[in-house]
Queue: 2 jobs
Job 1
Amino acid sequence: MSENILFLAHVDESGSKLPNVAYEALATASRLPVQFGGSLTIGLLGANVEAASHTIMTAGAHIIAVSGPDFAQPRYATDAAAVEALCRAVPCSIVVAPGTPRFSRIMAGVALRLNGRIDTHLTELGVEDGKLTAKRWFYKQRLEAVIQRGSRPWFLLMDSGCAEPWAAQNSVGEPQVSMIDVPITPEMTRTRFTGIRSPRSDAQTIRPDAKLLFVAGAGWTKKQSDGKTHVDEAQAMILDFLHHSGASLGGSKSLVDQSGENQAVLPFMTHLNQVGQTGSTPRHPKGLSTCCHGEEPHVVGWRFINERRAINLDPNCGWARGKADVLYVADAFQVIARLNALLFEMSGGPALATTVASFSGCSRMQ
Ligand SMILES: Cc1cc2nc3c(=O)[nH]c(=O)nc-3n(C[C@H](O)[C@H](O)[C@H](O)COP(=O)(O)OP(=O)(O)OC[C@H]3O[C@@H](n4cnc5c(N)ncnc54)[C@H](O)[C@@H]3O)c2cc1C
């Protein structure tokens, strides 16, 4: 069955390109016409879509857009009206869009207006028995659903980190963009955007696009070989490492629970950082676990971490039992201090908050 595919995206905060997850979703959407023999149209939304349309013009699709100052910031009424207009402007049986916060807010409402159906948090689109098939995980990533639907239009919202992004090739010339007019009434602009309130930059520890997930366990707050805790040192060391490596920060349940009980622990660590059965299941190419035992309810959250390494004093910890590719049986305070020194040398960045401890080496298990 041939399908008319509409790929939707909005420009990112810079206004010059699309969010990363949109390029990933475009890579997936652009394969569908090859598989089904239909057409691909790209629909863009933003204050000004010109620069962003250059980044996707080599996808070879007809581009339609809604733009203007009313569409600069996310707002349900104007965003939903714009996306509805894009969907009505071209024949579309399948609508693929990135699961950004902006689109996640409106897409179910738009699907309802078009008498369509929607599935969200999708990780993969493919073909089974000649039919379009979408996949998503349920029950804390334990069950994978394989979904097919007869209803059209079918809206498909893609999760990030699941596909290689569409690679923009060098483009020459100007993209041809057909602008769609969307009438805006005063009622639609009653909600006003007044600004972004974001956490301090050193508190933004969750970075979904990072190549590395750095996990801190409760061991960082426990008594060390000198019989004392070294929480301040641990805090400075972890922040230095995140600063120099650009890694995303995860935590074990034991560590984030301590933060919740107002104990003297790492203040930048919240339940949002928790990885595991009752936490998150982030997607990163690599993971480094430190001072974390590697018990099953934690490691189940590492399902989508491809290459895993751990540092633990205990050669019999969970990581040693087939849960990590490499276990360094070592003191994480020493290893991370040494790593920070190496990263500092490489980057020539600002002075480290931590003193570099002498590194006595460690044994390595594979
Ligand atoms: C229903 C259920 C759901 C759960 N969900 C989750 C979840 O989502 N996420 C989660 O994390 N847990 C979860 N847990 C809890 C989980 O089973 C573990 O209790 C928790 O992961 C332990 O955290 P930890 O490894 O940081 O702490 P600990 O078990 O206390 O381990 C600390 C480790 O640090 C090491 N260490 C100490 N000092 C150093 C040093 N200087 N250098 C190197 N290593 C050092 C020690 O050897 C030790 O292995 C769940 C449990 C249950 C029952």
Job 2
Amino acid sequence: MSPERNGSPPPKKPKVGNEENGGSVAPAENGASAPRGKNQEELQEWIEQRVEVPDGVNEEYYQISPEILDCFPKYVFPIDLYRLKEDIASLVPVYKTGVRVDSGFRAMVYQRCREGLIFVSRMQHGIYTKFISQQPDMVLLDKNLLPTEIAAILMVSLRQALEEFYDQMVGPRLNDLRKVVGILVEYVIQKPERMDAFICTVHELSTIENKSVNVCFAAMALYMRYYGGRINVHTLEKVALGFILHDIGMTRIPKFVTEKERMLNPEERRRVKEHPLEAVEVLRNLDLTEEPHVLPAMQHHERMDGGGYPNRLRGDQISILGRMAAVADSYVAMITERPFSKEKKPLLAAVELLKDQTSYDIRITSLLVKILQEVTC
Ligand SMILES: [Fe+2]
């Protein structure tokens, strides 16, 4: 359980029980009627299944915040709920997904939730993540989520927002993407070390959107470490947006080229190499013209010895944002499976980049190695 959980005392090794061992379903709480509907028998059957909870209950269940519960549909919750019965140190099932609830039952659950007594199973974390990722600002309210869980939720939210934006590059969709980026920034700027957990959150499917989120997380982890506490929230919002849009130029390259599974021919390679230049035009059309927006897109394929593209910049000609984007972009490419090469272990990939000082800034690659040595992915 996260050390940032809410103020209620931690449960003492509770077990999941049923009515026979002292647990009860909703009606016994306050006279409110039980969940009704055709699933009632199913509910009863489910309640009668004993689930023994091991000592480390917090690894398997976590408290749900009232704010999160508040976001659930009013009449059918998307997730099973358990109530802590402190007197018998047990977790008792109180709600099964899909059963319709009435207002009395809902009020009881809300009250118990405010008291810190309602738990959900980490077994259903996938459903929880999917639900919350549609309302990502909830991660700022839920004090019970682990940093890795928040990273997973924001990864899904950012990918969805980026997919929608790349599908239709218009102002409102850009604003939606900005909102999610703003949530990420708000979350990590309070404690820069929070960004470390994001470097372990890698989406493996190599679509442009997935890769862009991966690169954004890695580059932001580097940025936060590089500048430490000297980061301005408005600058970080621009930087984060610039990192996630670093490959926006690829949206101008035909799909038959970007999705080709065989080797590209020389003409196709030439076309792909134009994507940093295409990016500048696309960003300008979106009124994204400030350096943090443009430099990652323009320079993530430049190399320290001048061997990169599109402008063959070298050394100090490449901005720090460009160098970070270059390291993050190559790192993500190495740790995710591609058509012609197998993925590498994160630390091995970072060490390989560290050795390549002709291509990458050693200050950035050594930071990447340091982060990966300190976090457990
Ligand atoms: Fe690129």
